[in-house]
């Protein structure tokens, strides 16, 4: 119950972590099934339809329900602490964001047991995703589930923007903000401007499928390429929503374990902003082969390649940070250092793909699959592992086992390169992506076998990580406030795990790396910016959960509104939108309740603070 | 209790009550951000409409369909409601809750008038012109864009009604003031969107 009603950002972080971890596990399992099917030519382990459903759900689940929530978990756990705040700007909305994400994700995954998963690829290209070619409710689960989950992401983005703008501790100017806070800020801005586009796209596709609209139906005057534009205007920025937080994590972990300041802090900030800006200008590089014409292709080609410049700046700054530092390699830093070459390779293949004429060759082959897995898994997932190992003691008060951590790292990264490095060559040799099997003796056999073995090894790495978590959770929570001893930012100045009010007294920030600065000046703690006083806390509430349940019910009701039912009663309830109305009533009723009964919150008094 | 809350307790209000507390300031800021997102949302709908506005699939065209005097009347009503919501905020800043409530009621009434005209317009299209969601890509884009705006107006009407109710039993405080201010921002935003709809959908449909 505690967990359903919580509005504490640290608990919401844990919720995001478990829920994201669960979906990540499901997505990983789907990946293993896909690889098992491709282990040998002409395999009949899966049929074509199931294979299509698996690749669609794997991509969708991983991106929207796996890695994004884990990013949100780290942001929720760390950002208020890093900027010296007692909370986020909108604790209530924070909880709402989590629950809509979870119920959206559940809805999407219900498709497996309710008559067929989406099968049109994670990009849901029309006309493949139209009712003509995708006849089950699968794509409806996709559009409505993602819509609900996306709502949560948007809410989270606005919340972090407001939090970072207004709640920084005294003295923390923007140019003194930790890099992870910066990348969270920029990521949230991208979310704010990219997600509404996919919101519209999903609405249009829903209307096409459920209300018989003609947006993407050529026969009715619609245009499938329009879908691609809308999807990628969102989709390309989305990949920066994923990678920028990883950049932020790496920029925290590497300096800490090099015992040095981050090299080129301000160039890092500007590179981040530039990447975000350019990220909005290059969507059509996913559409070179749709026939936009040579001029458009050339422009999008060049603007895409430009992104490599700020990205390169970042890579060199990390290398210069380590240069001459006293570098240590606990698991967190292993992952961070492993990130650098792996991600760089993904960037290089990105530039190759950005060359429009070459892309005509690479497009829809395993080369593209290799490229984006190098950036998403070799970049983002390694970054998340680094971040999780780094902040685990802060979140849970327990250090993860280093021995198991190193096993995780080596099995995972070895498995990763085995799986995906070879796929570059498979792609260059002409193996198509999204095809459920291939003919023997095209020189694909051995490489695919090895690729599948690599995937299995990654799975082993994940299992070791889970074992590590399990064993760690049974040990006493006795981590020090600054367990790595070289913590530079404010989260390391308070106990692990932090009390619910985070800071007894808001700290006064006197420079970049606020804590490091005090340490080098010979101080053991931050100077407080205020006397000890009564702290105002928001009350726990069930309303965010109820609102999300309502949306979930409304979504299901809408989805089945045109179906024929055997039982007249169910038919009546769905066909007349009664179910939809009930769902909306729950949601709007909860909104009304929230609006009418203002949350007075409660206070933690100074005596209580001292009593601890 | 902060000073702002103390002032509110004895009946006086700070100069800009919506920005007197951190919560209020956060609300206003976040709402600006939210409107940024809404702008992208409507931008995408507009782009879709522009791409598909001539794809009539042998159904009615914009020129055959639209009846400008009706739309102009709706436009006038909606713009007027923006003005009345400005009066409402002025009354709020002058700490005159009764006047504030009056202007909010006028705003709601105008909003309802606009919605009535829109529903009438849609029903004429559907019944007499055989122009429904499924007729053509143009019709889909039209109903989606204009309908989305209409849904926003409807939401705004209900929202402001709730705030009027709150004003009656909670009074004008530093807690209710940000809500009223934010709803006025929302109301202006949907009016601005309508100006674009009037231009891009109706005027361009008649002459373009
Ligand atoms: C220097 C940076 C990068 C460049 C130049 C680049 C370029 C490209 C190009 C041109 C494509 C389209 C290939 C095709 O479909 O034929 C592509 C696909 C893709 N990229 Fe990147 N990319 C870069 C970084 C990233 C990052 C950072 C991510 C994610 C974190 C990413 C994720 C993806 C994904 C998911 C796809 C495949 C989408 C699909 O068709 O399903 N890329 N990239
Ligand atoms: Cu892209």
TrEMBL record, chain A:
Record-level Gene Ontology MF annotations: cytochrome-c oxidase activity; heme binding; metal ion binding
Coiled-coil residues: none
Catalysed reactions, as listed in the record: 4 Fe(II)-[cytochrome c] + O2 + 8 H(+)(in) = 4 Fe(III)-[cytochrome c] + 2 H2O + 4 H(+)(out)
Enzyme Commission number(s) of this protein: 7.1.1.9
Domain of life per record: Bacteria
Bilayer-spanning residue ranges: 12-34, 54-79, 91-112, 144-167, 179-205, 225-250, 262-283, 295-320, 332-354, 366-392, 404-426, 446-471, 542-560, 572-593
One GO term (biological process): electron transport coupled proton transport
Primary enzyme class: translocase
Cellular location(s): Cell membrane
Membrane topology classification: Multi-pass membrane protein
Keyword Transmembrane set for record: yes
Alphabetical UniProt keywords: Cell membrane, Copper, Electron transport, Heme, Iron, Membrane, Metal-binding, Respiratory chain, Translocase, Transmembrane, Transmembrane helix, Transport
Cytochrome oxidase subunit I profile domain span: 1-510
GO CC, any one term: plasma membrane
Pathway linked to the protein: Energy metabolism; oxidative phosphorylation
Function statement: Cytochrome c oxidase is the component of the respiratory chain that catalyzes the reduction of oxygen to water. Subunits 1-3 form the functional core of the enzyme complex. CO I is the catalytic subunit of the enzyme. Electrons originating in cytochrome c are transferred via the copper A center of subunit 2 and heme A of subunit 1 to the bimetallic center formed by heme A3 and copper B.
Family affiliation: Belongs to the heme-copper respiratory oxidase family.
Designated name of the protein: Cytochrome c oxidase subunit 1
TrEMBL record, chain B:
One biological process term in Gene Ontology: aerobic electron transport chain
Location of the Heme-copper oxidase subunit III family profile domain: 29-206
Gene Ontology MF annotations: cytochrome-c oxidase activity
Transmembrane segments: 29-53, 65-88, 100-120, 140-164, 185-205
Lineage, opening ranks: Bacteria, Bacillati, Bacillota, Bacilli, Bacillales
Protein name (Swiss-Prot/TrEMBL): Cytochrome (Ubi)quinol oxidase subunit III
Gene Ontology terms: cellular component: plasma membrane
Primary location group: membrane
Gene3D superfamilies: Cytochrome c oxidase, subunit III, four-helix bundle
Keywords recorded for this protein, A-Z: Cell membrane, Membrane, Transmembrane, Transmembrane helix
Family stated for the protein in its record: Belongs to the cytochrome c oxidase subunit 3 family.
Subcellular location: Cell membrane
InterPro entries with a match to the protein in the record: Cyt_c/ubiquinol_Oxase_su3 (IPR024791), Cyt_c_oxidase-like_su3 (IPR000298), Cyt_c_oxidase_su3-like_sf (IPR035973), Cyt_c_oxidase_su3_a-hlx (IPR013833), Ubiquinol_oxase_su3_dom (IPR033946)
Membrane topology recorded in Swiss-Prot or TrEMBL: Multi-pass membrane protein
Pfam family name, one: COX3
């Amino acid at each position: 119950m505690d967990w359903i009603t919580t509005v504490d950002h640290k608990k919401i972080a844990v919720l995001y972590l478990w829920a994201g971890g669960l979906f990540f596990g499901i997505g990983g399992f789907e990946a293993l099934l896909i690889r098992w099917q491709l282990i040998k030519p002409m395999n009949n382990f899966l049929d074509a339809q199931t294979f299509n459903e698996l690749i669609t759900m794997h991509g969708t689940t991983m991106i929207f329900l796996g890695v994004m929530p884990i990013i949100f978990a780290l942001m929720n756990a760390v950002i208020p602490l890093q900027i010296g705040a007692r909370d986020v700007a909108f604790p209530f909305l924070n909880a709402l964001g989590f629950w809509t994400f979870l119920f959206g994700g559940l809805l999407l995954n219900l498709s497996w047991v309710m008559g067929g998963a989406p099968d049109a690829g994670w990009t849901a290209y029309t006309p493949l995703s139209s009712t003509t070619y995708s006849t089950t409710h699968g794509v409806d689960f996709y559009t409505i589930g993602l819509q609900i989950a996306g709502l949560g992401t948007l809410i989270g983005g606005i919340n972090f923007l407001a939090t970072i703008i207004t709640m920084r501790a005294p003295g923390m100017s923007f140019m003194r903000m930790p890099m992870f806070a910066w990348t969270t800020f920029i990521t949230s801005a991208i979310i704010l401007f990219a997600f509404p586009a996919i919101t519209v796209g999903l609405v249009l596709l829903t209307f096409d499928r459920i209300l018989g609209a003609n947006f993407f139906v050529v026969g009715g005057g619609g245009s499938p390429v329009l879908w691609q534009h809308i999807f990628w205007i969102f989709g390309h920025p989305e990949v920066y929503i994923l990678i920028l937080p990883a950049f932020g994590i790496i920029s925290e972990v590497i300096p800490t374990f090099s015992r040095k300041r981050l090299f080129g802090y301000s160039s890092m900030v500007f590179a981040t902003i530039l990447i975000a800006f350019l990220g909005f200008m290059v969507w059509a590089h996913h559409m070179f082969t749709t026939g936009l014409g040579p001029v458009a292709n050339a422009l999008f080609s060049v603007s895409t390649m430009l992104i490599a410049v700020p990205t390169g700046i970042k890579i060199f700054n990390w290398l210069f940070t380590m240069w001459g530092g006293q570098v240590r390699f606990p698991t967190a830093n292993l992952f961070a250092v492993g990130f650098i070459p792996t991600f760089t390779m993904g960037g290089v293949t990105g530039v190759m793909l950005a060359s429009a004429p070459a892309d005509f060759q690479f497009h829809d082959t395993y080369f593209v699959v290799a490229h984006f897995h190098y950036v998403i898994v070799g970049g983002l997932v390694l970054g998340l592992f680094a971040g999780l190992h780094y902040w685990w003691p802060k979140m849970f008060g327990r250090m993860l086992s280093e021995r198991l951590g190193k096993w995780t790292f080596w099995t995972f990264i070895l498995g990763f390169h085995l799986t995906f490095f070879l796929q570059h060559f498979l792609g260059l040799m002409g193996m198509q992506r999204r095809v459920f099997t291939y003919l023997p003796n095209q020189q694909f056999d051995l490489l695919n076998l090895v690729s599948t073995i690599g995937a299995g090894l990654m799975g082993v790495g994940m299992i070791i990580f889970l074992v590590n978590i399990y064993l760690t959770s049974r040990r006493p929570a006795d981590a020090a406030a600054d367990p790595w001893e070289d913590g530079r930012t404010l989260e390391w100045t308070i106990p692990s795990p932090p009390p619910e009010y985070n800071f007894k007294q808001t700290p006064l920030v006197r420079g970049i790396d606020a804590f490091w600065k005090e340490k080098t000046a010979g101080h053991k703690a931050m100077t407080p910016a205020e006397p000890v006083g009564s702290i105002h806390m928001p009350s726990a509430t069930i309303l965010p959960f109820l609102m999300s349940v309502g949306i979930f019910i409304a979504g299901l009701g809408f989805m089945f509104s045109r179906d024929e039912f055997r039982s007249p009663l169910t038919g009546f309830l769905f066909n007349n939108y009664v179910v939809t109305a009930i769902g909306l009533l729950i949601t709007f009723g909860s909104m009304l309740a929230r609006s009418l009964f203002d949350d007075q919150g409660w206070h933690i008094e100074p005596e209580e603070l001292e009593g601890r | 209790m902060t000073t702002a809350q103390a002032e509110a307790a004895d009946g006086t209000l700070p100069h800009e009550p919506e920005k007197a507390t951190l919560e209020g300031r956060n609300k206003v800021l976040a709402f600006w951000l939210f409107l940024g997102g809404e702008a992208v949302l409507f931008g995408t709908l507009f782009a879709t409409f522009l791409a598909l506005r001539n794809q009539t699939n042998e159904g009615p065209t914009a020129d055959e369909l639209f009846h400008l005097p009706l739309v102009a009347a709706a436009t006038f009503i909606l713009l007027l409601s923006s003005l009345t919501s400005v009066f409402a905020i002025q009354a709020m800043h002058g700490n005159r809750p009764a006047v504030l409530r009056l202007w909010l009621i006028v705003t709601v009434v105008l909003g309802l008038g606009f919605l009535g005209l829109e529903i009438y317009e849609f029903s004429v299209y559907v019944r007499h012109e055989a122009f429904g969601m499924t007729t053509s890509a143009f019709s889909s884009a039209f109903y989606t864009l204009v309908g989305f705006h209409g849904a926003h107006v409807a939401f705004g009407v209900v929202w402001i009604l709730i705030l009027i109710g709150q004003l009656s039993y909670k009074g004008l405080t530093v807690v209710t003031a940000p809500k009223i201010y934010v709803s006025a921002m929302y109301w202006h935003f949907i009016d601005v969107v309508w100006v674009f709809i009037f231009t891009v959908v109706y005027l361009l449909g008649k002459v373009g």
